[in-house]
Queue: 2 jobs
Job 1
Amino acid sequence: SAYLENHLSWTVQIKRWVSYRMTFAYLNKMKSYRYPVTRLYSTSQTTVDSNEVKTFRTLAHRWWDEQGTYAPLHSMNDLRVPFIRDNLLKTVTDHQPGKPLSGMKILDVGCGGGLLTEPLGRLGASVIGIDPVDENIKTAQHHKSFDPVLAKRIEYRACSLEEIVEETIETFDAIVASEVVEHVLDLETFIQCCCRVLKPGGSLFITTINKTQLSYALGIVFAEQIAGLVPKGTHTWEKFVSPEKLESILESNGLSVLTVAGMLYNPFSGYWHWSENTSLNYAAHAAKSKAEEPPAPTEFFLNRETERLQANDSANPGAHEELKK
Ligand SMILES: C[S@@+](CC[C@H](N)C(=O)[O-])C[C@H]1O[C@@H](n2cnc3c(N)ncnc32)[C@H](O)[C@@H]1O
């Protein structure tokens, strides 16, 4: 009877285990049915560096203090907003006065508190601002609510660029990544993702910091450690990128670099100006190649005829002569 009792208890345990397994399998299946999202593209690489997230989280309430930590980004709008607007206007034949970017879809990657997203929305564009730092997006949402004009033009999302790439393809007329690429983990993946969500012929705008001895001395030693213009640890020199390196990554992803322009910041006046010198900060504009044009009808028929003659070649020796004509 002891044997029987033991045997029965084992059978009950095994049955329980099998039923747990089945329940889990069923729940897992349900979970996959709950989200019928089609993944268009998936990358195992993340571009988000958790240390950067920590740094930006602690500063999330300071975005809109024009005299504070982000003062240089506020005044950078004097250069970058017209740079983006004027280059985008070159791609259209006419535009609405007062709303020149109306009809354009822009993705502002690493939008922070929305310092650049808002002026782009005011120019009439539909802008999606994304940032991996939740607190930044909350600040951006809150600030947007002060201007009713922006309600329908700007959408903010706390997510990474990789997540956008999983949902959509060739959607945006322009992508803006201003002062962001020097914070990402894997620049090549970041650019690849930008390229995927950009429409053929679309524009990518990047502003960033060059990787030079001068950028180490001024951008890190002076700005962070001596003058306290930027909080310590904001930048890592190893992540800075030269215009040449950036250009080679862009070109290898099917983007042509149209402009690279130096930007210099005067810490005494608090203003930026354009410069030929790109050894510190610079802006780049690149365009994704347009979709291949279908061959012209005559060219198409000639190619078809050549293919037909080549196919007949072995069966019909005279085809060689016909091809030569
Ligand atoms: C210096 S701020 C620039 C903010 C904004 N673009 C501007 O110029 O006002 C850098 C921003 O990039 C975001 N960021 C960091 N890593 C990122 C990544 N891998 N992808 C997208 N954004 C990132 C940060 O959270 C931060 O908001």
Job 2
Amino acid sequence: MGTAQFAAETTPAAARHPVKTPITAYDARDEIALGILLQMANLPTEDITPEMLEHFLTAHAGNALVGAAGLEVLGEVGLLRSVAVDESHRGTGLGKRLVAAMEEHAREQGVRELYLLTTDAVDFFAGMGYRKLPREQAPAAIAGTAQFSNLCPSSAAFLVKTLVA
Ligand SMILES: CC(C)(COP(=O)(O)OP(=O)(O)OC[C@H]1O[C@@H](n2cnc3c(N)ncnc32)[C@H](O)[C@@H]1OP(=O)(O)O)[C@@H](O)C(=O)NCCC(=O)NCCS
């Protein structure tokens, strides 16, 4: 593929948002917007506790919430969850930056292995080093989460990434 053709096919989303959307810790002022963002992305919200929100990251364009990522810290393992980017900002690299920022945060919390469930974004996470795992191999702490036991459809893929070997 020639450089010009590649540029024409890849610039639109990034060109609409040339400034990198800042990623910051969750703030309670985003409570309603976060609920809407996750619902629009078909992700569960009913099991999110105030303690979990201490491990959520958000991204804003101006005052608007356009991205989020969450983490359940369960000792040395963690559940990456609530990774969502508003349609307006998809394809700009924001999803990837949110996951990378959350991995860094998880490491700081002492998490060595990060698990997640997804129905629609297996390839997205595979591109970031996550690999599929049979559900039966889930550590007890992960198997006990609401996401794992009843909120995510049984068809959802189960993935893991080692953060600290
Ligand atoms: C998955 C999601 C967060 C990706 O956000 P995004 O900002 O569009 O992703 P990026 O722009 O960082 O994309 C990074 C790469 O992943 C690819 N990608 C993005 N979404 C993808 C998807 N759903 N499936 C496969 N690949 C995907 C992009 O093409 C890009 O590839 P490249 O690096 O080769 O160019 C977004 O599509 C979303 O909110 N989906 C709905 C919620 C969801 O399924 N969350 C995951 C479970 S928690």
